[in-house]
TrEMBL record:
Residue span, HTH tetR-type domain: 11-69
Name of the molecule in the record: TetR/AcrR family transcriptional regulator
InterPro entries: Homeodomain-like_sf, HTH-type_TetR-like_transc_reg, HTH_TetR
Domain of life of the organism encoding this protein: Bacteria
Annotated source species: Micromonospora costi
Record-annotated DNA-binding residue ranges: 32-51
PANTHER family in alphabetical order: HTH-TYPE TRANSCRIPTIONAL REGULATOR BETI (PTHR30055:SF234), HTH-TYPE TRANSCRIPTIONAL REGULATOR RUTR (PTHR30055)
Length: 190
């Protein structure tokens, strides 16, 4: 094998372990390293070659969750269109994060000492999106920015919990989430 092939193979194995960890920890935060190794189709020894302990693996999971969240945020194009249409796109992109959302919602997995800021705090682009919605009349101006953010996170959580409990389709659950968020942020008639 060439050095490039070995490097590519190592990167794929590492990514498979991180993917398995995201999937399992998103469904069961107490999943063991053995469970994760089995799901990644590697032995425990191989897992430990890549991640010395659970904390090391959780740092990699945190980094991957953060990268996926950043990509989804960029794909939502929060600066485009009305404030409400941007909120809708953001919900759609975040909904498709799947089990990454469960990890983000589980503060015990991604702690501050791992450099995770998670869903807390509104970044400037989010603030600008909601304030634009206040100005353009698509988001109720009585709803503070941090309230809109909490609303989005709570509905995404509710959507994924509902999907897990009922087995409803992604399409149907996303439609319910968007309908709920659209109705909740819409300005009230005078």
């Amino acid at each position: 094998m060439t050095e490039a092939q070995v490097s590519g193979s190592r990167a794929r194995t590492r990514q498979a372990i991180v993917e398995a960890a995201i999937d399992l920890l998103g469904r069961n935060p107490a999943a063991s390293l053995g469970d994760i190794a089995a799901a990644a189709e590697v032995g425990r020894t191989t897992l430990h070659r890549y991640f010395t302990d659970r904390a090391d693996l959780l740092r990699a999971v945190s980094a991957e969750a953060s990268a996926r969240l950043e990509r989804a945020t960029a794909q939502a194009r929060m600066a485009d269109g009305t404030g409400a249409s941007a909120v809708r796109r953001l919900c759609q992109e975040y909904f498709d994060l799947g089990t990454v959302l469960s990890i983000i919602f589980n503060e015990s997995l991604l702690s501050a000492d791992q450099g995770w800021s998670g869903a807390g705090g509104c970044d400037p682009a989010f603030v600008a999106m909601v304030e634009r919605g206040h100005r353009d009349g698509t988001i109720d101006p009585e709803l503070p920015v941090d309230w809109v953010q909490s609303l989005i996170w709570s509905q995404l959580y509710a959507g994924w919990a509902y999907r897990a409990e009922t087995g409803a389709s992604r399409h149907d659950v996303l439609r319910l989430v968007l309908r709920t968020v659209d109705g909740a942020i819409a300005p009230r008639p005078a």
